[in-house]
Fold:
Amino acid sequence: MNDSDALAFYDALPPDEQAALDRALAEQPALAEAFARWQSLRAELRAELARDLPDHALLVLYALSDDDLLSDADRAELDAARPALDRALARHPGLVAAVARIQADRDAFEAAWAETAQPEPDRPAPAPLAVPAAGASTTNRSPKPAASRAARDRPAAGRAARGAGPVRWVARVAAVLAVVAFGAVLTLVWDRDAGWETLVADGARTVTFADGSTAALADGARLAVPGDGIEDQRQARLIGGRALFRIERDPADPFEVTTTNAEVTVLGTTFTVEATDVQTEVVLVSGAVALAPRAMPEAAVTLAPGERSAVLALDAPSAPEPADLRALDWTGTVFARDLTVGELAARLARQWGEAVAVDPALASEKISDGEYGADGLRDALGKIAGAMGGRVVAEGGGFRLAGAVPSGATAR
Amino acid sequence: MTFDLLTVERAQSGDTTARDALLAGITPVLRGFFRSRIGGRDDVDDLVQNALIRVHRGLGALQRADRFKAFAMKAALYELQDFYRGRYSSREALFDPDLPTPGSVDAEDTALRVDLERALATLTEHARAILEMRELGYPYAEIADALGTTEAAVKMQVKRSFARLRELLAVAAVLAFVLGTFL
Structure:
């Protein structure tokens, strides 16, 4: 490429080639004059573009306007600017091409999104959210005055971020994310220091939260609960051991259980968590929960009732699979799923260390899924008998589930 | 925690764990997007982090959590526009738009000033589109892609435009000489 051709691409050249051209320009006045004109031409083009399209963000909004991607505020802003924008597009073919390019960028983003397989929001759009002031906790959702809310649904606008330039300092944000990825334990320690109270179960123990949710701890389990100074009381940290959580439903304020390496988000449900320093296992009894490594929230899995999943270290959760609910017998409650009366009675008998017999006519009958035994063996047997139209008979130091009360007899 | 409305709402409410989860959740999306647009350059990290900051700063103003995807998309597109406009240390970056282009003629320099309007009028629409896209900050390869042609063809158009401008200059010089000699 000769000097004349190279000058047309001056700004795209590396510094050494620009320096060589600078020397050539110093030696060739005619070439220098032509280059000056060329640069002036480009400057004029840029000035025209800046005059006709002062805000480049509008070009993005315009490119996205055919899709349902703009907020009401975006649309209002675009509508207000549209006459001038239409004139600019009619005058500048480069802007038309840029719009097409942005639309290609939009498609590329959609592809990246689909490739990452992020789940779409899974419930209808709520009314505009009440966002507390910065720093407020999740439980204290006092609505922000409408006037104080930014009127636009726009990511901190191009203009706001432009001042940061190449923003090397944002590497600190990356560092924060890295900490999230690899510092779960540190986070736990930090939170404990911030006013959490750690309970160590010496024998079975049940913790009741302010909202009525409970955590039944197995012997030796360690549970950190928010102290009085922490506003968000719908959270807990299972530091180690096993716990059965029964969470009061509150869609507006989900309960969150975290362990050293995972977190479980729930709206209202019953589930168990068993945590060690390196593994967290969740068995869901009822409702729905999402289990995710703290380091990889995008890898969350959602469990259905009767399923289990585990997070080992920083790995993704294992695929949900049917759980053996007998593993929950330590809770003192038998969680029945697809059991016969005979099977359930046998489980309860083992649980309580008492003899429970079942009449053959009832033994093979299916019993409703549910919880049995939380209020004692007798209560559980009475529940079964009631469901089957039978009765509980105390005999020989144990119990027997029998059929309907014979005529003239008295149920016991 | 999944990336869902719940996470978005909690993040908006000041829950730092949800916010971190949200940002971590969209990081691979942003990374994949920027890589697909500019390749595996070092700038991708800056683009990703800047887009995350845009999302973080704007999250409180997001009025509908179910539109988070579109919200994140806009953040990414704004960031890419800034990238094209030379806000990064790109080899092909334009000069700072707020500063005069090096080598350009001062508008007050009437002795050297050519009729830029006339020069611009000589450009074909295709050439003008190329030069305007260049002034918007797009690399030549991106311009070629946007216009459905090759980078070589785009550069050929640029060279022809520069050559045409030089021809105009030569004609103007001759005219000036003739007018100066005979008038």
Residues 29-52 of chain A form the longest helix (24 residues). Chain A touches chain B through 120 residues (CB under 8 Å). The CA atoms of residues 332 and 376 of chain A lie 9 Å apart.
